[in-house]
Design brief:
Length: 133
């Protein structure tokens, strides 16, 4: 298969290690950022979603503009760090926001539903990829 960014297999393995390490860093640094700027959990989740949205937007800029966008393999490492920081913290903040929205006294029911929908939908993505392929 063609590899337009010229990333070797070792580079892809490195990216697979960079993302979880960055996620760990994100779970440590984002709460400090939140408390420094006095953001609520909801504001933090919105900010993290905007930061997550920047990744595909940046990647698509190369299709539209003659400058910018994902053009080299080196940029993948920076995007892996960015993605890791955001995805590591957004998972914990979404769970925190969910716990704030749950009615008092019904935590068990709602978190059981959360667990079922979280793990129960894990088959959907691979199934769609298999169908498309």
């Amino acid at each position: 298969q063609p590899n337009p960014l010229q990333v070797p297999a070792v580079g892809l393995i490195a990216i697979a290690l960079i993302v979880p390490l960055s996620a760990l860093f994100g779970t440590i640094i984002v709460p400090k950022f939140q408390s420094y700027f006095r953001l609520t959990t909801k504001q933090t989740v919105i900010l993290l979603n905007v930061l997550l949205l920047c990744i595909p937007v940046y990647g698509c800029l190369g299709f539209v503009l003659p400058f910018g966008g994902l053009k080299s393999g080196t940029e993948l490492y920076y995007l892996a760090v960015w993605f890791g920081i955001v995805i590591g913290s957004i998972q914990s903040y979404c769970r925190t926001l969910f716990s704030e929205l749950v009615p008092h006294g019904r935590e068990t029911e709602f978190f059981a539903l959360y667990a079922v929908t979280d793990k129960g939908s894990s088959w959907l993505g691979p199934t769609l990829v298999a169908i498309i392929t």
